[in-house]
Amino acid sequence: MAQHHDDADARRAAARETLAQGRAVLGIELGSTRIKAVLVGEDHVPLASGGHAWENQYVDRTWTYPLDAVWHGLRAAVADLLADTERRHGVRPTSVAALGVSAMMHGYLAFDADDELLVPFRTWRNTSTGAAAAELTELLGYNIPLRWSVAHLHQAVLDAEPHVPDVRFVTTLAGYVHWRLTGRKVIGVGDASGMFPVDPVTRDYDADLLARFDAHTAGRLPVARLVDLLPEVLVAGQEAGRLTDEGAALLDPTGTLRAGAPLCPPEGDAGTGMVATASVAPRTANISVGTSIFAMVVLEKPLAQVHHEIDLVTTPAGDLVAMVHCNNGASELGEWAGVFGRFATALGSDAGADEVFGVLLREALEGDADGGGLLAYNYLSGEPITGLDEGRPLIVRTPDSRLTLGNFVRTQVYAAFGTLSLGLRILVAEGVEVDTMFAHGGLFRTAGVAQRLLAAAVDTPVAVGRTAGEGGAWGIAVLAAYVASGAADDLGTYLSTRVFADAEIDVVEPDAADVAGYATWLERYADGLAVERAATEAL
């Protein structure tokens, strides 16, 4: 027992020293519903964290966040982080060894020559770019999803929006925050691959496709070359600037945090998800579940055909990845957890939100393998994979279905995976093989439940690590630590030997009965999309 206390005391002393001497690394991610900041030690283990809840707004039929909310949220998250650091370790760090910024991918932030925002931030959630995405996909012979930055820009051109002649810079949310912190208009290759197609050989925007785009849009953009509007592309391990005095004040107006720390290239949440699950090598894959849900499969070779359901993006190191991105993830499940939580409170329970969520998830294991005949659609917004421009959350059942709490919750969890499964079918048909799926996101904090049901949905072993709940903020912190280390090894080697060598990873094999039940449910789900479509037309 004494040895145990001595070890714990030594770890606390080491953590304090790391923080006090500025050797910790800061990672920040602006997710759809939460801005999270985390400090990690030299062993990549989180030392403290902070967060701030925020929500997108639907203004003039556009999903957006005001830029003031970005900076208010970042300051709140960093303040919460510094307070947590002091509470846990008795020290308030004044500097860090490196930092990184990540955010929800894609979308459209357009600025003029004076660096003023021209139109409100258009997030990944908007599905108003159908004409541009279809035209560019045909032109380039490369799938251009609705949410990509170039689709938003080209749609603005097609619609003759008055701001287009004034555009001088287009970036993503991560690219914007990084620019304000460092003064550099750069972007990580993974995030860049959600702006315009990237060539995995050059690890830069695809030159041939840029030339094709420029010829097609000649005279309709304020510049002759699209690349002159886009941020410079960097790969993992490259230093992407340093925190300026202005940038430090934006993060921490108290002046505690000093300028000077190097930053890694800003990345999207897909890239940090790959890092957080060590899924950057061929035949590895990860699934991230949050407001949206997406699967990233690192390819051994390019796909044979263009599929509108499959995005081709890259890892933070620039390797080609097939991405199945669904706009709707676990939000509807979270709404129902809130309803049941309020019911528990009304009964006199003092159970917290996490406890309620855990109880509901465990109850899902009591449900029938096929959900008892229940169907749920988690479509809070449109879903391009299933061809829906808008969403209507639904729970549907037949008179002979079995409405139990277990079946209800299991069906809500299945609903979070349903559209993803339809997209993954295409990769299976292309002959893409995966050894293990790594999963991360808050849904996996309750041990074993969502992991088991996801294994059934993908019919592949699903691994969850100890950082599953930390997600992208931890992933971008690791990328920042990679820069601070000097990046002598390639990213995959760094992750396997320096970050995950001793990681505790729990792997769940797919259960045959669950697989069969989910397959039955998914067929019913695909047939029932007609109901969802009718709801969007009627309501």
Automatic annotation (TrEMBL):
Domain Carbohydrate kinase FGGY C-terminal: residue ranges: 285-482
Keyword Transferase in annotation: yes
Occurrences of domain Carbohydrate kinase FGGY N-terminal (ranges): 25-250
Assigned keywords, A-Z: Carbohydrate metabolism, Kinase, Transferase, Xylose metabolism
Similarity section: Belongs to the FGGY kinase family.
Identification of the protein by name: ATPase
